[in-house]
Each structure stands twice: as C-alpha cells, then as structure tokens.
Design goal:
Layout (H helix, E strand, L loop, with lengths): L6 H10 L9 H9 L6 E6 L5 H7 L6 H5 L16 E2 L7 H12 L6 E6 L9 E2 L2 E2 H11 L2 E5 L1 H5 L15 H7 L6 E4 L6 H12 L13 H4 L3 H5 L3 H5 L32 H4 L40 E2 L2 E2 H29 L1
Parallel strand pairs: 1-2, 1-3, 3-6, 6-7
Antiparallel strand pairs: 4-5, 8-9
C-alpha cells in the first residue's frame, strides 16, 4: 500500500531538515502536488527588469524546465505546476490575443490564482503592456490573486531599477501595493536573479496549503533565514585567521582566503546561496572568486551593499579587536602554545 504524503509531512520534509539546508526534493513535490485538489492558474507579469529571472527559472535543473512544464502535474488536472495562463516573456501568443489571457486568468476559480511578478514597479508612463500602464495591470491582477509572489530583487524591493539616481520611482511590489491601499501579503523571493529552487518550492507549497514562514521583509525563512557570513560561508575560517584576498583571482600562500577585502557583503546578507548554489548546484559567487553582493537584501544595490567592490564601512570586531589582529595573534598564540607544550613535555621527561 502506497503511503500518501500529507501536508504536514510535506512541511516537515521542506523545512524541518534544516531551514536553509533544504534543497528541492522532486519526489516529495510530486507526491504533494498529486494531492492538490485542483489546478492553480498562474499569471506572470513583468515590470522593469532584464528578464534574467525568467532565464534563471528556465535553467532549473532538478526538476528541469521540461519536467516542470510537462510531468509535474497538479492533482488530477493533468496540467503542469508552472504553465502560466499568461506570461509576457515566454508565451505562445502575442498582441491583443495574449492580453485576453489575463482576463481569462482573472475569471478563474477562487482560491486557485497565483500572481508572479518579475521586475519593479515604476511611476506612470514608464512601462506599458498592451496599451495599459503596468501599474494599472498590477492593481487589477493583485486584487483577484489568492497569492502574490515577487520573484527576484527588482519585484521584491526595487533592485537595480530602483537604485539611487533613477528617475522612474521604481519600487518593489509590496511597497507599491501598500501605496495604493491593497493590503495583501507578498511572498518576496529576492536575489539577482531569483533562484529557481525558491520559486518552484514556493509554488508547490502554496498549492498544497503550506504557507511559507516569512521574515520581516516578506522572505521565506527556508531560503533567507541564515546569515551568509556567520553561518554558511566556507571561507569564514580564513576571515577568523585574518587571511584575505585583496584582489579578484588572488590566492594567498595558504591556498585561499576570505573575500571580505574585495567587497564581500556576506556579513549583511541573509541567503542560502552557499548551500543551494547555482547551475544545478555547481557553484556560486564566492566560489568563482567574486564577493557576495548581498543581492538578497532590501537595500541592494545601495546602502551598505554599495560600492560592490569595496569592503564594508566597518570591519566586524572580535572582542573589540580587528580581525587582522586576531589572525596574527592566533598564529602567534598557536606557535607559543606549541613551544610551551614541548618545553613541559621535556621537563616532565627529565623529571621522570
């Protein structure tokens, strides 16, 4: 007899194994989706963006995009998990016919509509779709959506289009909806680009009634609940020893070094990139010699995340001493400890 995966079991398998250690388990997602009561309709809108998030989603590896759009079906519908009713970047139709699919989505069954937004929301006149201002389109769809997911840093918090100096007033979806008086929860899945795992897992979760636990910025703690520098970075031991790379591609005599001096923003980044990685979990920014830019944070690309290749304004201290002092001190202390141990051993041997 085959055991069915309950919603409770799904929640456990997705979160209890360790907040950010959870990687997509395709088998569990398939079992969970099989128990969804009905197909969910998805409308995917694009504001001010570069389409990098769509490319990232299309490059999902396990499950890959073909499985997501064909074999990972919802309930008994026979329809795939993430085939949108409407999607501006990837859609079989165009023009006025494509715009009609948004109206079809708006009339879909209640409690079955998901709105995915990529890209930031700009002031009137900067972005129009099908002859309609993007802001108006977002308001219309948000009002009828049962769940709203902002995929990528731009739709979550404004991202690159919302950087200081922009003239478009670009902002994240949640900030815009509050501005126009729509009080709905937005599940923010930042990073630049958004990670496909976070989107597929979130879609599967809401479809079976498991609502992700969100932090103060609307991010699921499953993906954004751990600090990159303090809890996840494999280069943290070099930081504690005061061994740093001072320019991209440089490797100290020890064989490697912390990326802090080339602008790593890991101390202010909450993301699981070091565990989840990218491109079928092959690598991520730090492993290719680049610093973490903290693209998961609301202030990106401004605030302490900027400039990208400059270290944070203040180097974190250990007991009020700079880490470089600790690094050299630990080496000296280790040498002194070895000398003391050796001397004591000789004295004891002589006494014996």
């Amino acid at each position: 007899m085959e055991l069915k995966l309950t919603r409770r079991d799904f929640l456990k398998s997705m979160t209890m194994v360790g907040i950010s250690a959870m990687l997509i388990n395709k088998a569990d997602i398939l079992k969970a989706l099989a128990q969804a009561k009905d197909y969910w309709h998805i409308c995917w809108l694009n504001g001010a963006s570069c389409s990098g998030c769509e490319v990232s989603f299309a490059q999902n590896a396990d499950p890959d995009i073909v499985e997501i759009l064909t074999s990972m079906t919802v309930g008994e519908s026979g329809l795939p998990i993430a085939l949108p009713d409407y999607m501006q970047v990837i859609h079989p139709t165009s023009g006025s016919l494509a715009m009609e699919f948004i109206e079809v989505w708006k009339k879909a069954s209640e409690k079955r509509k998901i709105l995915i937004v990529v890209g930031s929301v700009q002031n009137p006149g900067f972005c129009e779709i099908g002859g309609k201002d993007f802001r108006d389109l977002l308001i219309e769809t948000s009002k009828v959506a049962d769940y709203i997911i902002a995929f990528g840093s731009c739709s979550s918090f404004g991202g690159i289009p919302g950087a200081k100096g922009n003239v478009t007033g670009a902002k994240g979806v949640s900030d815009f909806l509050k501005e126009v008086g729509i009080r709905k929860t937005v599940i923010n899945l930042p990073r630049c680009p958004g990670h496909p795992d976070s989107l597929v897992s979130t879609l599967a979760s809401v479809m079976v009634g498991v609502i992700p636990m969100l932090d103060n910025y609307g991010r699921p703690v499953d993906f954004f609940g751990m600090n990159m520098h303090s809890e996840l970075c494999p280069y943290r031991p070099f930081y504690d020893r005061g061994i740093f790379i001072t320019k991209p591609g440089e490797y100290p005599t020890s064989g490697d070094g912390c990326r802090y001096k080339i602008g790593c923003k890991g101390p202010i980044a909450y993301t699981d990139c070091a565990l989840r990685k990218w491109n079928n979990r092959v690598s991520y920014c730090l492993e290719v010699g680049a610093p973490c830019l903290s693209c998961s944070e609301k202030e990106f690309p401004d605030g302490d995340t900027s400039p990208f290749w400059k270290e944070l304004p203040g180097l974190p201290l250990i007991l009020n001493a700079p880490v470089e002092v600790w690094g050299s001190g630990l080496v000296a202390a280790a040498a002194a400890g070895c000398a003391i141990h050796f001397a004591r051993k000789k004295i004891k041997k002589k006494e014996e």
